[in-house]
Design a protein that fits this description.
The protein is of the alpha/beta class. It folds into two domains: 154 residues, D-Maltodextrin-Binding Protein, domain 2, CATH 3.40.190; 93 residues, 3-Layer(aba) Sandwich (D-Maltodextrin-Binding Protein, domain 2), CATH 3.40.190. It has twelve helices and ten strands. Helix 4 packs across helix 10.
Length: 281
């Protein structure tokens, strides 16, 4: 009689059980607990998790009390209130991680100047747009050679990794070297000290960062492109998508979006009207 087989079976069962336990322990809690209905769960717990970079003013940043602040932050808080969720838990992450973070259940929404591109829409869903901005070329103050898009050929162009700035630059600046940065602030610092020749950024974001940090950089040339921004969420969450979109539409209609954009972007910019124009076919 072969007595080693029961021993082998017991050993195998022990190893399989240990492996299963290790897998559970190694899996982040947020990846194990993504509810089927995110909106219902958020209403029940009173908390919704919303991701932003907290490093891309004026959209999201940290204030003097180290708390999230900015246009997207204020919009997110108002949206949460209107969809029946008492509190927002802001989750800081990099732009390049947003889509995968949503798919993995790391957070419930992304609200940080995120453009609903065709590629992103294959992987996540978007609400009605709540923001719009134009993108420009930024160079050092002493640079008088770069004045428009053709002048970028053969130059090192800085962009934030994972943003629509990066995808646009790769599609449209084929003769340039595209240099990516995980931290959107570092690209401005590197432009100021000459590590890149120019960078592509939103008008509002670029001017805000340059002004606050007193960097010797300037905006040149005409607008390169316009891009909408909307709340992103995991696929197959129709209730969440409908609720967020309704909240945003109501905020555009009742003047809340314009009030918040005036506070963070300036009174001369009429956000709701600009969004409506950009949405027209």
């Amino acid at each position: 009689m072969n007595r080693t087989r029961p021993l082998h079976r017991r050993l195998l069962c022990t190893l399989v059980a240990a492996s299963a336990i290790a897998t559970v322990l190694a899996t982040p809690a947020w990846a194990q607990q993504q509810p089927r209905d995110i909106l219902a769960s958020a209403r029940a717990t009173g908390v919704i998790r919303i991701a932003n970079t907290q490093a891309s003013p004026p959209w999201s940043m940290l204030d003097d009390k180290n708390q999230p602040a900015g246009y997207d932050v204020e919009v997110a808080k108002e949206v949460a209130k209107r969809i029946g969720v008492a509190r927002v838990e802001f989750v800081a992450d990099l732009f390049k991680n947003f889509v995968e973070g949503l798919k993995a259940g790391k957070y419930d929404l992304v609200m940080n100047d995120l453009t609903p591109t065709a590629e992103r829409e294959k992987q996540v869903d978007f609400s009605t747009a709540y923001g719009l901005e134009d993108f420009r070329i930024f160079v050092r103050n002493a640079n008088n050679d770069i004045k428009d898009r053709p002048d970028l050929k053969g130059k090192r162009i800085g962009v934030t990794a994972g943003t629509s700035n990066e995808s646009w630059s790769r599609e449209n600046l084929l003769g340039s070297e595209i240099v990516t940065y995980d931290n959107g602030g570092l690209v401005f610092n590197d432009l100021a000290i000459g590590r890149v020749d120019a960078l592509i950024s939103s008008h509002f974001g670029g001017m805000k960062y340059a002004t606050v940090n007193k960097l010797p950089i300037k905006e040149v040339g005409p607008i390169l492109t316009y891009q909408l921004s909307a709340a992103a969420m995991a696929k197959n969450q129709p209730a969440l998508r409908e609720a967020v979109s309704k909240a945003v539409k109501d905020m555009r209609a009742d003047g809340t979006i314009d009030r918040l954009s005036n506070r963070w972007l300036g009174v001369s910019y009429q956000m709701s009207a600009e969004i409506s124009k950009a949405e027209r076919p």
